[in-house]
Amino acid sequence: MAIERTNPERFVLGFIKFLGTPLCIAAILAATVAVTRARDGNWEQAALAASIAIACGGAGFGAIWWVRFHARAADPSERLRAANPGAPWMWREDWARGEVRTSARRDANRLTIIAIAWCVVTFPIFFIVPHRALRSADYFAIPSLLFPLIGVVMIAWAMRIRRRIRLYGESRFAMASVPGRIGGSLAGSIHVDKPLAAGQQVALELACINRTTRGTWPNLTTWDRILWRAEQTSMSDSTGSIPVAFPIAPDYRPTDDSNPNSRIVWRLSAKAGRYRAEFEVPVFR
Question: Based on the domain organization, do 125 and 258 belong to the same domain?
Answer without folding.
Answer: no
